[in-house]
Amino acid sequence: MDYSTLYRDLNQVRVPVDRAEFSEVMVIHRMYVRLSDLDVGELVGAERVKRLYVFADVVELVPQTVWFRQIQMPGSVTVIILCRLLQFPTVGSQAETLQLPFMRLQAIVKEQNRSEITAADGMKWGTYIHGNEVQLRSNNSRFDVWAPRSIITSAIHNVLNEPGRLASNTVIARAQGAVTTTRMSAWLSHQGFVLPTVSPTAFSVLPLQSTNVSFTSIPVEVVTDPNILLGMQTTLHIAELVKVCHPSPDIVSAVAEHAIWLSKVLLQVVQNESQLQGTESYNECLALLGRVQSVIKMGRFGSVVPQLQYRMYGSLINQMAQVAQNYDREFKQFKLFIIQNQILGSYLLQQNKAFADRELQMESFHSAVISHRAQELDTAIAKMDRLSLQMEEENRAMEQAEKEMNEGLRRFQNEQVARAIFSVLRAVAMIGLAFVTGGATAPAAVASAGQAVSIAGQAAQALRRVVEILEGLAAVMEVVAAVKELVASLEQVGQIVDAPEMPDMPSEADWSIFVNEIEAVAEGMPTEVSEVPTWKAKCKNVAALGREMSITAVQISELQYHIWVQGLMRDIARSQADRLAAIQPVDLTNYLEMATQMDMRTTRMLIGLLNMLRIQNAALMYEYLLTPMELTAWPLEMDTMANLLIEQENSALLGLIQLGPSSDFTSRHVVKGIPVSLLLDGEDWEFEIPVQRGMSSFPFSWTRVRIRHLEMHFVQEASSGGEIIHQPATQTGTVYILLQGSTIFHDRRRDEVMTFQAADPLNYQYAYRLDTGEATLTNEPSEQFANTFMQMTPFTRWRLRLSASAKENAGLAFPTATAPDSTTEIVITFHVTAIRQIDWRQEVEE
């Protein structure tokens, strides 16, 4: 793979190495690095560099166009190169040589079979080069590293502190069974001798572990070096950006490989270095590991219609954009100065106060995002709490229903089918409650359901697809539970490491199968059991609740994770502001590292803005029935964000023009066959209002149908005239009805049906006097709120109940409903806004 092309526009640090004023510490954090770009022959002032750190996904030894070139790199005390892939060029010599002309090492031969290499200034590592994988040019390649300014001492060879050259010669063979070998040697003038086994050594190049070109774990001192941790921050940051907004699948796949490698490196510290627990570097490794695992395990989230209407996000986005624009303007001036003057350090010192102020603005920026998402999170968790209570009630009711049904079952086949459906419903309940319980019981319940369905055979065949969906949901819930634990405590990072990769959530078709197949199997159960309509309705309720809870749990997980990362970024901004404000000339020893951090901060701010734009975009798509689009853009810069803002405003105008004005309409929908016993128990009755032509109580010529408010009343007389419609009675003379919307719903755009998913679907409350029909509680919003919050469409699955806890329903009874299978009807009057299409077809004369 040509990584130089693949990663061309992926590097976040846009300060060219040859434009920097070199300091004692030089850090290069990129996805792709050519070592020839660090050749001292091309770099002015490279002799000042004492410590060089290169952290990348891919490091190429020599450009393909340069043959037999010996690269000379800076670094007199330490040179550390870490990468996932060390790449030999596809053309040129099979042997690649890297010279370290300023590196000062000392080699001491202790005895016949033992020697020691030490670094200058008491550093543990003089040279450490690690590639998790090596991509060879041919079946056999050689990588030589020379340190020509070394000091050599060996009584065996009559050498005492003489200048010489240390060399590491690594031969890598791709052929099966071949052994990768590394030989250390010392050279004096033109005479050389092999250094005996060196351990430990300050001169380590591709330390060997096995014969399949796989190398040893990176030493903990290297991983936890602040400059290496910063490199991980940089490349992880790139991975997060790519996941959110990069349009190329190839780059997304390549960056995913890098994330997996990062996870392995960090796990070495987290799992094996318990003595570091509580230290700053250990905690940073924990936080990085949590973020890396989330990049690996959590997929791209789909577009979800938010609680607020499109226009309500404008103020916050404009404020965020202004902060980002100010910071970006400062950074552009900073980079322009570097390009024009080829200098960094002195200018950075002058600008530190300005950047410190910008970092404080960034802290406020992250706080604003956290505050906004926290409100959504509170709403989602409150909804989950309500659903959990309902699911627990339904689960207890189903257990009782199972006991009652077992007593009435006659045939073996029916008994097996009953066990299958109750096992499936129990698994649905466990998955629905997984967010609350931590998901511990969900996998076992799903496995048990699969076994019960297999035993039931052909009669329960329809449930097999439901079990498959449940298996996917169990994996989803495992990741959700792991994220929940991670954001609560970094110490729980192991849970997300052990969790599977999150599969895609079920599609709308899958959810239909999920609910309908359970209902279909329930319909086939024996009718001799008492209150059959009630328990069949409860089967539907459990399925519907499981669907709602699963979707809500994933939304909560996404919100929790974003808030957690924003909190980390806010803390970094605060400490960075303190650091910049207190900086002194003596502290300016790592110019590129500071430029890297500033560039990271700029782009992190832009990704926060992009996430908010994505929320607004989802509201925009729903507001004007536009075709859903992915907000993908690269490179992610302030100019790009400005263009996206303009595009969103333009889309809003075009959408408004295309749709035209809406009008107010009223439509009635009668919900029939509601079991009276279900209402008396305070349980839900689920029904659907379809969106398709010929199936809906709403004319198909209505498009963009939105509920303003609704009324609910018990039907007084049957349409056929002969049937009795059972009426409720209460001690208060009033009745309270709750109508709960579903997360997934539909709308119309001309002849096209559009599907949406809500962050938090709406619930409608209504109460009225039974004698007069006069409303005592309405759901008609004030004008202010009508233009603030998202409005639902009627085309979804609804759950209707007479809440037992409502004071209006005290003493609820249906005096005329004496049969156990009695049913009743409720009419819902929808007051909606809609756009009525004009039919321009001309009638043809016969």
From TrEMBL:
Residues 377-418 form a coiled coil. It comes from the Eukaryota. This is IPD083Ch. Keywords: Coiled coil. PANTHER family: EGF-LIKE DOMAIN-CONTAINING PROTEIN. The lineage of its organism: Eukaryota, Viridiplantae, Streptophyta, Embryophyta, Tracheophyta.
